[in-house]
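Is magnesium ion placement plausible here? Inputs below.
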Amino acid sequence: NQIKKYFPITGGILGRKVGEVKAVDRVSFAVYKGETLGLVGESGCGKSTIGRLLLRLQEATDGEIRFEDKDIQALSPKLLKKIRKEMQLVFQDPYASLNPRHKVEKILEEPLIVHGIKDKKERRERIMNMLETVGLDRYHAERYPHQFSGGQRQRIGIARALMTNPKLIIADEPVSALDVSIQSQVLNLLKDLQAEFDLTYIFIAHDLGVVRHISDRVGVMYLGRMVELTDSERLYEEPLHPYTKSLLSSVPVPDPDDQSDSEVLTGEIPSASNPPKGCAFHTRCKECMDVCKTSRPTFQEISPGHHVACHLYGDA
Ligand code: SF4
Ligand code: MG
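Reply from A.M.:
I modeled the complex. Tokens:
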């Protein structure tokens, strides 16, 4: 049940396939009801692709994706539409995803229409309630996206995602574009909404600092592969994978003089179209051994709930 998504690279006048980008390469994980699973990694590691595969906005090359008891990839268009109601995306840049010519009311009404709420009064009532739920006011319904601050726009993006009463929210870097002071407000809002509506989150971010306080578990990705997955606490206290360790040491620490176990990441991130053989991280890993250059480490559970893909651990 490992998910793959390879993007073809074509070249030449015949447009023949000359290579593949393994955006997601044999990744397998579960998300539990009511939890927040953080997905972290540098840009191009495949974390956003995973979000789109789950919603079937892109088709996986291989593997199985299940939502509750349903195989997402086997659904008819009709069932897919129904299930999309239950899974919604929150984007990094709400401005880019909010139609500038539509008033907020229309923006929030659209998902209700798509999902068959026919009664105009009912739609309006739900829109007004949702505006208040996300910390905006009823009169904001009459305004256009450009009349809001970045943080308010993200509240509109969140409101839109919640209009259809989803169960799963995939938040793709929802606070990366916001000022630090606004970030925590939006993170707190997401936490409150999770409790209120019994939501499950997949929270995508490029640094571990942001996901720390919101995630129950965190998966670390590198070049399309998941390299470590465990409880949030354990990941920060006992990271095992050398890549996780280097990501953690680049998170600002309260005492900048304490560089005792700093392992700052060096070297360029290799291209996903030509990932290193063996362990994809071996070109940047300080603990690289001979075996790492030829053999890909399997992603295995080395203690209960702690998965890691590295030849330093387990019975590789
Ligand atoms: Fe480093 Fe080898 Fe582990 Fe890869 S498998 S992270 S190269 S020690
Ligand atoms: Mg992305």
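Short version: Residues 135 and 272 are 41 Å apart (CA to CA).
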